[in-house]
Amino acid sequence: VFKDVFPRFRTMQGYHVGRKAGWDCHGLPVELAVEKELGFNGKKDIEAFGIAEFNAKCRESVTRHTDAFAELTTRMGYWVDLDDAYRTMDPEYVDSVWWSLKEIFN
C-alpha cells in the first residue's frame, strides 16, 4: 500500500514520480509452492531432483503467475508501470543490488 499511496500523493501534488512495478521472486513462498507442486517433503527431495532443476521450476512458477499479479495490481488501482517491471530473479536486478551494496560499504 505504501508503495502506492506516497508516490500517488506526490504525483497529485505535481511532482513527477516514477513508479516501477516489481515482483519479488525469491524466498520461501515460491519454494514451498513448488515443493508442494512437485510433491516434495523437504531438502532431500530437492537435492535428489537437482538444485538447478528445482531453481528452474521456481523461476517457471514465478513467470507463470506474473500475469495474475499484474491483473490484480491493475484491479486494485495501483499506479505502477507494469510494462517495465523488475523481477528480483533477473540477473540485472541482482547485479544492481550488489552494486548498491558495494557503493554503500566502500
Structural class: mainly alpha
* Rounded mean pLDDT score: 91
What is the distance, rounded to the nearest whole angstrom, between the alpha carbons of the first and last residues? 33 Å
General shape: globular
What count of domains describes the coordinates?
1
Poorly predicted spans: none
Counted by DSSP, the helix tally is 5
The secondary-structure element order is: HEHHHEH
Tell me the quaternary state.
single chain
Strand composition percent? 5-15%
Please provide a written account of the structure.
- With 106 residues, the chain is mainly alpha-helical.
- Helix content is 66%, strand content 10%.
- The protein has one domain.
- The protein has helices spanning 2-12, 28-38, 43-49, 51-76, 91-105; strands at 20-23, 81-87.
- Strands 1-2 form a two-stranded parallel sheet.
- The radius of gyration is 17 Å and the shape is globular.
